[in-house]
Amino acid sequence: MLTLLTNPTLPVHTLPELYDLVIYCDAILYPKGTESTTSLAPISLCMHCCSALLAKKPHQPKNLLVNFQYYGCERLDMPTLQAFDSASPFDLTLISRACVSTVTFYYNSCGSRGGYSPVAVWV
Q1: Domain of life here (predicted)?
Q2: pLDDT per residue over 16-32, tens digit each?
Q3: Which of the four, 24, 43, 49, 100, has the lowest number of CB atoms within 10 Å?
């Protein structure tokens, strides 16, 4: 399954450093969604991603970090990181509105109507 979460076209200098890429087979993951960043452990997935990866014919879900939605934030230089850290919610909204025009998914942990509950899966 982890091979479906790779993107060989990403430059090496942009790849994540917050978890062990070798252990996770070069999968582009959200580090806070892993139970361990140093050993192979369950990762949290929304139900849509989980069903796509666990299907009879596993396939890559459309809205993944690996589909050029990974920005390498931990690889940004210090002044840029500090600018994002000190940005107000209004500033971040202006930046995000310049990048996207539609919210594609709404995630929450309650699983209420309109949202997805995270699902832990062994990969």
Answers
A1: Eukaryota
A2: 888 899 999 999 888 88
A3: 100
